[in-house]
Records
---
Amino acid sequence: MAGSFLGTAWRFKLGAGGDVGLGLDGARVAEAGEALAVRQSIWLILSTAPGERVARPDFGCRIHDLAFGIGGASLIGDVVTAVEEAIGRWEPRVDVLGIDAFPHPVEKELLLVDVEYAIRATNSRFNLVYPFYLS
């Protein structure tokens, strides 16, 4: 069953609500179910620089090494490659269908990284646009 494969997770940012486990004050922790849990996982992968997590120093995406790069085709190619490698390594529930990075039309120091993916268990297609600041 797709739901059992995708599972659920605590909603990011952590807060009260939902019906998962009682907290110390009796409130329930808000949960992210199935597709939202996958989306949040991809966002966390892209938002984490390798070395940032003590218990898992290899976790994350190396786009953060490119934060002060000079814009252009080479940088965009490096960003796309880093995102593809990170999602391929850390999110086994998805197939990446395409990744594109393009400059924001107004903010020149902002790249928009468009990730198109399909959840393997359901073949549902989604996209996520991740803002990547160059400075």
---
Amino acid sequence: MNLATATSAYKALVGVASLECNGVARVASAAPDSSYLLSKLTNVGPCTPTTVMPLGGTPLLASQVSTIRTWIAEGALDN
């Protein structure tokens, strides 16, 4: 997955089906609890992942996860 630029990251995440969790979007606009990205960050949700992001790194702070959750809830806009 190409996350090198904001444009490529957005196109790779929003409305794109997860390869690890059939039928679930990586980021489902306006539906944070149905977004696989949040499952990967929190280890809760659809198709609970076997590995939590960031792989081998320090988990994101609750405030950072909250910011991502809010962005998704507000429609995951490309802004």
